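fyi for ur records
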Amino acid sequence: MASTSPRWTSLPAGFGDMLRSARLDAGLSREALAATIATSANAVQCLEQGRRPPAVDVAERICVALALDPWRAAVLLSVAVDVRELRTRRGVRHVHLRGVPVPNAVRERIAGERAAGRSWTAIAEGLNRDRVPTAERGRWWASSVSRAAVSGGG
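which gave:
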């Protein structure tokens, strides 16, 4: 199955099968390979099913552990991505602006709506509907509204 994630380009057809056959040729179970390359068996399964590419360092460890021939190693290393791309949503590096205070006007609105008996979720929906920006340029959630009301954070 080819990857359809916006995080990275699709994996070549047969990538997972190639990796699985190399593992079986080496006589390793999924768990044994995972222990050898210092990752989880679930990560190895995701690679074999073609759901995600390996990180560069994991790809290099797989090449060594399975003693891949040059062609298979080249295929594996060509699809490997930087580990930071695998650890972020949609491959976008998020910058957290923790500690950036919410403007007083927004804090006053939150306090007024809360005093009127509205829930944190209802307040968040109203802020999103009115397109009030958050400190992290995302959506307002009940937890971020309550945090803004209590601490002034975003």
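Confidence is low (pLDDT under 50) at residues 89-96. thats all i got for now
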